[in-house]
Structure formats: C-alpha cells, structure tokens
Specification:
The chain is α/β, with parallel strands linked by helices and 279 residues long. 51% of the residues lie in helices and 12% in strands. The chain folds into two domains: 153 residues, NAD(P)-binding Rossmann-like Domain (Rossmann fold); 104 residues, N-(1-d-carboxylethyl)-l-norvaline Dehydrogenase, domain 2. It has an eight-stranded mixed β-sheet, with helices on both faces.
C-alpha cells in the first residue's frame, strides 16, 4: 500500500527586524533565524546582522517588502516615529510586534498608525534584561492579535510568552509600572551608596541593611510598606527631610530622598490606600 504523504510543516513567517541594537542582536544571535531580514538606521550595524545570520537591508522598504512578522526593537524615543515612518511599507496583514519600552499611550498611538496602514499591531513587553536571558526572556503580549502573535513568537524560539489581554497598552502598563520599582531601587541604591561612601560608612550601612532585610513576597511587602506610610507617613517624612539634609552636607543632591519626603507626606493618613488584607 502506498504510504500516506508526510505532514508538511508550515513555513515560518517571513521575519523582519527593525532596529538591531542589543535586543535585536541578542535574539538573532541566539536563534539564527533563517531568512530573516534586518534594517537599522545605523549602517554600521549591518556587520552585526550578518554575523547573526540576518540579511542586512540597505533601507526599510527592502527589509519590510515581504514581511509577515516584524519585531520592532528601536530605542524608546523612536518607537512611535518608527511606526509612522515604516507603516506605509508594511504588506497588508503583517504583524508588527512593538517590543519597545514605552508608555501605554505611546503604544496605542503606534497601534493606530499601524492599523490605518493595514498592518496588525501587537503590544509586547520585555520583562527582563535580554542578556543573559536571550530567548528565555519573559514576554507579555496584549492586543486583539496577541494570541496569534504568541504562537508565532513561540515558533521563533521564545520560550516564555504570555498574553495579558486584548487591549493594546496592557502589556506596556505592566512593564512601565514595574519599572517604577525596578529602576527606582537602582536610583535609590546609587543615592544611598554614594552618600555612604562619602561619609566613610559604606560597610556599616550595608551590614545594617543585611541585618534588617526580610524575605517576603512582593504582595506582602507592598502591603506592609503602604501600611507603614499611611500610619507613620508624617513622622517618616520628617525623618527623610533630615536624611536629605545629611546628603546635602556630603555634597550629594538628594533627588530620590526629597521625592520620598513628598510621597510619605502624601500617603500619611490615607487609609483608602490600604489593601483588603489590612482591613
């Protein structure tokens, strides 16, 4: 009996990368996507594209001419400009994955531009540094075509892709609000550590922090921090005002500390900000 024909694997989508900085180079270098095209406004990045197996195009039109899936990985300040500049070049129905770290309103504006040109827009948030995570980096997707994009991105080798809603901007809201804490801690760390070094008490300050640190899930930690501010905000604001004076005496501009004074004042006594677990 004749053997049934072997199942035909679907061809991968024709992939285009707009922007080839750290993220684009890291992803492409890890995946070695066959047939992918790339374009970056910096022509010097063409060599990095070729090293990652990506065809370097001289212009965006050549890059996007036959694209079915686009990964937009430009700088945050160019995300909307890229959508406006390249939307007219998209083939009808091409999926534009906006993977840039920008505000929800910026992504909604870009979605309108891409949609008006006949493309399909997907809001993608990258939730961790791409190096060393590479294709294992967590991705959040939002938008009407998020489920379809999840399948395509998984097919490209991304291993941690999750849809968080059908509304464009929802994924970026998670990213941006999370960044308030992540980047804020970095800024606070710099302000604290540079002042400690200037005062000659770095080791003592760090040891004190180690001694007081408690392992706690973020939900519990957030509830605890809010309760402390609501209950003791005025006293803590006064303390932080003195901390700001301390930094100024050491020649440090207390940028984060002064903002903490304002936030502590604003939270003091505001019981409506307490979560249900505190009721």
């Amino acid at each position: 009996m004749p053997q049934p024909p072997a199942p035909v694997e679907p061809a991968p989508p024709k992939l285009a990368l707009i922007g080839f900085g750290e993220a684009g180079a890291t992803f492409a270098g890890a995946a070695r996507w066959a047939g992918a095209r790339g374009f970056d406004i910096n022509p010097a990045r063409g060599e990095a594209m070729r090293a990652a197996g990506v065809t370097a195009c001289a212009d965006a039109a050549a890059c996007l001419a036959e694209a079915a899936l686009v990964l937009c990985l430009v700088t945050a300040d160019q995300a909307l400009a890229a959508a406006r500049a390249y939307a007219p070049l998209l083939p009808p129905g091409a999926i534009w994955c906006d993977m840039n770290s920008v505000a929800p309103d910026t992504k909604r504006a870009a979605a309108q531009v891409i949609g008006a040109a006949g493309g399909i827009y997907v809001d993608v948030a990258i939730l961790a540094p791409v190096d060393p995570a590479r294709l294992a980096v967590p991705l959040l997707l939002a938008g009407p075509a998020a489920d379809e994009a999840r399948g395509l991105l998984s097919g490209l080798g991304f291993g941690d892709v999750r849809v968080v809603g059908a509304e464009v901007g929802r994924a970026s809201a998670v990213k941006m609000i999370r960044s308030v804490m992540v980047k804020g801690i970095e800024a606070l760390t710099a302000e604290m550590l540079l002042a400690a070094r200037a005062a000659g008490v770095e080791d003592e300050v760090l040891a004190s922090l180690d001694a007081s640190e408690r392992a706690m899930p973020w939900a519990a930690r957030a509830a605890y921090n809010i309760e402390r501010m609501v209950t003791h905000g005025q006293r803590r604001a006064a303390e932080m005002a003195e901390a700001a004076k301390t930094l100024e005496s050491l020649g440090m501009a207390p940028l984060m500390t002064t903002a903490t004074v304002t936030r502590q004042h604003a939270m003091a006594g505001r019981k409506e900000h307490l979560g249900k677990e505190a009721e």
